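Hi, here's the filled form for the chain we discussed.

Project: internal
Contact: R.S.
Residues: 454
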Amino acid sequence: MGKFIRLKQGFDINLAGKAAPKVSELDPADTFVLKPTDFHGMYIPKLLVKVGDNVKAGTPIFHDKRYDKVFHVAPVSGEIVEINRGAKRKLLEIKILADKNVEFVNHKKYSVSEIANLSVNEARDLMLKSGVWPNLVQRPFGIMADPEVRPKSIFISAFDTHPLAPEYGILFKGQDHHFQVGLDILRKFTEGNIHINTHTEKEIATIFSQAKGIEMNKFSGPHPSGCVGVQIHHLDPINKGDVVWTINPFGVIQIGKLFTNGVFDASKVVAVTGSEVNQPQYYKTYTGTSVKKFLANNLKTDNVRVISGNVLTGTSIGTEGHLGFFDHQISVIPEGDKFEFMGWIAPTINKLSFHRAFGLLSFLTPGKERSLNSNMNGEPRAFVQTGIFERVTPMDILPTYLLKSIMAEDIDDMEALGIYEVVEEDLALCEFVDVSKHEVQQILREGIQLLQSS
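And the returned structure, exactly as it came back:
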């Protein structure tokens, strides 16, 4: 029997532009990219290809010098046409001009009985060289899982509460068998439980309800109840020295496809969402896809912000950008670059605010879908201690004091105040409601990096 956790703290951001339950296919994108910047904790990525090389889906592209056996591989077949670097020659992305038909690197296929008898070392070796290992994220710190560490448990969130989040029943429809195979493989890596966490108000997809060998838990409450860090906190808290792995359902499916089909399959369904999209819906594509074809003739205006992921934790990529490794959503909202008379103090019911102040009347219509832009409605200022962070963080930590300890570089206080339990998405709402306009997620990552280097 799993547990039932009722959460009260949090806040749902109800935006216009939710994807219609329709899955379409477009002509394949011309280019795909792999971004080392998608993976936290990357030490020094070592490039294994050069411009002009031809690759197949599953061909190793780079690896971290710290984990030289963990390969990051091409999502599709094609030609390496561009390698982009930033300051100090930091590797930013590797761009592939895709073939019309995807060719795969072939690995050994396993039957159900062979998978049952597979040793953990054999499973690990195939996952490392094939490219599916980077799906595993290690807590604390939210970094790529260390292949030499055995986690005390593994967590999978079966729902998403971020703004305009896609429905998992649509994203992973028809993948029940591969998901179960992936679970059977992951079972070999831990002596603890594999937790699958669902929400009481969301329909449970069959891919999760029929899963075997797991512990099914139920959560209720607003965002961030769908964040796996919040779920870990209430089910199996992380203390200093503990290691927990997390993985999203797509990663589990990708592992299952590897062992049953013998290929690295990066095909996925992506939700194109947001108030500035004419026809928000789902599309079939591959990891790292260019977003150009999804947005062509599908935008209400040109002055938009295109985000890979959701509006709270996603990355702004522009109309020429590419989807991130872990993302299943493209969000398009108005760009907030226009001056507004009276700004955030103007009486209105069209804006959304957690604070009931200065004429913001949005709380009178809580169910209304709103079109919000990227305007910060203010500039960074002194850290105002309001206690508001604790009202949107359903965890037994004190975000205000944790952030202050990070800014003071006080490692002892950082540890005592719960830094081992959180990553950016767990405190993203704090950034949204912060009257001081601090970069909360950036501050938290800087604290994590300080702790890792100490």
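Let me know if anything looks off before we file it.
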